[in-house]
Specification:
alpha+beta, two-stranded antiparallel sheet, single chain, DUF3039 domain-containing protein, DUF3039, 23% strand, globular, disordered N terminus, 92 residues, 2 helices
């Protein structure tokens, strides 16, 4: 666990206090896939559109052409081979 900077604040009693912010990373190597997960891939989409899609629940279009509303952690799935090929060709 890595420590992040503290932020100043008031403890409500007229004194000065601080709050320690911590970043917590939790991994689950025993993750069990849900129904249909075996056909899922992580897809390449523009980052700004991905964030908007996750917040607003609107569909995004991946490089491979797939349209979907992202709701799952993409780190748990392999990268779509079609998206990967297209991305590599775009990079040159």
């Amino acid at each position: 666990m890595s420590e992040l900077p503290t932020t100043g604040g008031s403890d409500g009693a007229g004194g000065s206090g601080s709050t320690l912010l911590e970043e917590q990373t939790q991994t689950n190597p025993n993750y069990t896939f849900e129904d249909g997960d075996e056909e899922r891939f992580s897809h390449y989409v523009p980052k700004d559109k991905l964030m908007a899609a996750m917040v607003d629940g609107i569909p995004v279009k991946a490089l491979c052409g797939k349209m979907w509303v992202p709701t799952r952690d993409p780190d748990r799935f392999p990268i779509c081979p079609n998206c990967k090929d297209i991305y590599e060709k775009m990079k040159g």
